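Why do we care about 3D structure at all? Because function follows from shape, and shape follows, mostly, from sequence. That is the central idea of this module. The next example makes it concrete: a single protein chain, its amino acid sequence, and then its structure expressed as tokens.
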Amino acid sequence: MMIITNNPKFISYTNYEVNYIDTDYLGILKEGRDYIHKNYELLTHPLYGSVKPYETVYRTLVLKKSEGIPFDSIRLIEESILTAEKFYEMNKNFKWTEDILEDFKVIDKDLIDNALERI
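And the structure:
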């Protein structure tokens, strides 16, 4: 399995291939799309949890190599990118405090950790 993230809390994970990218929320979705076009399948929803694209700056995706073209993942990531782009303007220049950014990291990590336990 592969983790694509902009959340530094995942860098130390050794049981997974971690692709940490210093980018924004939308950048992670687009990087995920690039992997999906290389036959990776989404294992987590790109808009998981009740955290809206304008309510956080961190996003993490879990994918696995697929035997064929993952059409459902292609559709899902494209729809998620469109949704995120609608909301992106709401927070792209917002200056979050360090405490809030830390909370965002913890929420993202907890959601993915819970998903990894079930995968």
